[in-house]
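Predict the holo structure. Ligand: S-adenosyl-L-homocysteine.
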Amino acid sequence: METGEDPYFQERKRLVEQLVEEGVIKSEKVKEAMLRVPRHEFIWPNRLEQAYYDTPLPLGDTGQTISAPHMVAIMNELLEVRVGDRILEVGTGGGYHAATLAVLTCPGLDSPSPLVYTVEINHVLAEFAKKNFSRLGFDKVVNVIEGDGSKGYPEASPYDCIVVTAAAPSIPQPLIEQLKPDGRMVIPVQSRFFEQDLMLLKKDKNGRIKTSNMGPVVFVPLRGEYGF
Ligand code: SAH
C-alpha cells in the first residue's frame, strides 16, 4: 500500500475530504483507514473509473455490490473500533469494508493471528476477496470464511465488533450471543416492505442490550438460516 505510487491516491483523497465535509467521517482513525485502503483494488476491473465515486458498484455478474464509501464510513464510526479489537463481518463482497476494519484494528497489518473474520456465502466473491487480501498484504489480519454468516462464526467468537453488510429480517440471536460484553454491532434490518433501518446494538458489561435506530438504508438481502 505505497500511497506515493498509487495513481488513484488523489481521487481517493478527494473522496475522503468530501466525506469529512459532509460530516460522514468524524474521527481521524476512520479517515486514515479510508485514505489508506485502495478501493479500486476491490472492485471489478470494468468499473475502475468509478472506484472513487460515492456509490455502490456491481461486483461482476454476481448480483452483489460493493458498499458505497459513505456507508462504510458510517458503519465504521458506529463500531468505534479500537486497536486490537476482534471483529466479525458478515458479507465480505470484494473485501473493501473488511480491509478498512483491518487497518482500524491493526494499523501495522502485522498481527500474529487474524483479528477480522469475514464470512461470505458466494463462492466467487469469497475467492475474489481472498486474492485481494493476499495481493495487498491484508491476509495476516483478515480471515475469509466461505459459508453462511447469518449464524455468525462461533469458532472465533466472542467479538468486540460485528458488522453485517446485508439486510436481515431481524437481528440474528447467534450474532447477539457472539458479541462480547461492551461490544458493538451494526446491522441493517428490514422494517417494512422494501424499507430497511441501520440498527446499532450495544451490549454493556453486564450483558444488557440496547438498540438504536440510525436511520433508513439500502442493502442487498441477507441469505442463509437467519436471512431471507
Ligand atoms: N462488505 C461488502 C459488501 C458486500 S454486499 C463490501 O465491502 O463492499 C453483501 C454481501 O453479503 C454479498 O457479497 C453477499 O453475497 C453476502 N451475503 C449475503 N448473505 C450472506 C450470508 N448469509 N452469509 C455470508 N455472506 C452473505
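The chain has six helices and nine strands. The radius of gyration is 16 Å.
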